[in-house]
Amino acid sequence: MSKAVSVLNGARFSGLATVEDAGLQGMITLRGDLGSKTLKAAVKAATGAEVPAQGSISVAENGAAAWMSPDELLLLVPYEDAVAKTAEVAEALKGEHALAVNVSDARAFFRLSGEGAREVLGKVSPVDFDAAAFKPGQFRRSRLAQVAGAFWLNDDGNFYIVCFRSVGEYVFKLLSAGAHPQSKVGVY
Amino acid sequence: MLILECPYCGVKAEETELAAGGEAHLKRYGPGSSDDEFHDYLFMRENPKGVHFERWRHANGCGKWFHAARCTMTLEVFGTYTAQTSVPTQEILDKIAAKRPGWTWREFADGKK
Ligand SMILES: [Zn+2]
After folding, report:
1. Which residues of A are less than 8 Å from B17 in CB distance?
2. Contact at 8 Å (CB) between B72 and B105?
3. Interface of B with A in 41-80 (CB under 8 A)
4. What mean pLDDT is predicted for residues B94-106?
5. What is residue A57's predicted lDDT score, i.e. its pLDDT?
């Protein structure tokens, strides 16, 4: 078995905000009827989190569930547990019209922290990042300049960003450029 | 800048998060139709200055298709609604009638159910 490494293996840039490769993160794409009791129980068992409301993420101690669309969730679990938990979810949903896939190695995961975090994301995404408009617990799929991405604001004030691994380096460089120390706009 | 609310996400998405899908509520003519019907289905599109119905996809988002009713001249948006319908919702039709009395578009028109 080869050693798993996250997309930029812990790369870090510090400027207006700190951009970090947030390391290996287990991610399971789950599609199905989000109103189903069986699905709710399976999500709870795998992540410890409830099925989130539209546009939000529910975070538990060792996992989280994010709202991707009316019939899709992104489950976050410890990287080492992703394979087993995907199988557990699939097993629990047998007979339901649902599908669980381990996408951990197909994604890149970044943390954006510090004073300028809202501004840096605001430069690359067409989303209102005003403190009154984008609050902790909110989860949004959008774009990061030219590629698709999703992000949420954690209770600790850090943004977490998910994108395809194939564009991981692009997103890291994009956020780093947006966080260039001499590029302050001062909107947020 | 055009801003449409995705009826599935509730997100107010701007144009760059969306993909345009052309005219809405096309009736498909396939095998068994006349040449004229098939020709019109393939090529004939509305190009109104005013009320228009379109398909859009929340491409940088949930990925789902939806419908939008808007004015091509002012960019005013009357509303968005799900893709699971072959006619605009009554709510949308009422909104358009209130703002553009006497409007028509294909088989839809002010006061027509
Ligand atoms: Zn959407």
Report:
1. 126, 142-143
2. no
3. 60-64
4. 95
5. 98
* pLDDT of B25 above 70: yes
Domain A26-105 architecture? 2-Layer Sandwich (3.30)
CA of A127 to the centre of ligand 1 (A): 14
The list of chain A residues with pLDDT below 70 reads: 1
**DSSP at A56:** B
Q: What is the C-alpha separation between B48 and B71, in angstroms, rounded?
A: 9
Task: Give the domain A12-23+106-180 fold.
Answer: Gyrase A; domain 2 (3.30.1360)
**Rounded Cα gap, residues A149 and A135, in angstroms:** 18
Establish how many alpha carbons lie within 13 A of residue B21's alpha carbon, considering only the half-sphere containing its beta carbon.
19
A129: exposed, middle or buried (Cβ count in 10 Å: 0-12, 13-18, 19+) = buried
Q: What confidence tier does B1 reach under pLDDT thresholds 50, 70, 90?
A: confident
Whether the CB of A157 is below 8 Å from some CB of chain B: the reply is no
Q: What are phi and psi of A107, to 5 degrees?
A: -125, 155
Q: Which domains does chain B have, with CATH numbers?
A: 3-105 (3.30.2270.10)
- Residues of A with CB below 8 A from B11's CB? 55, 140
> Of chain A residues 116-145, which have a CB less than 8 A from chain B?
126, 140-143
Query: Chain-centre distance of CA B110, in angstroms?
Result: 16
pLDDT tens-digit map of A131-176: 999 999 999 999 999 999 999 999 999 999 999 999 999 999 999 9
**Nearest chain A CA: its distance from B49 CA (Å):** 28
Q: What 3-state DSSP class applies to B61?
A: coil
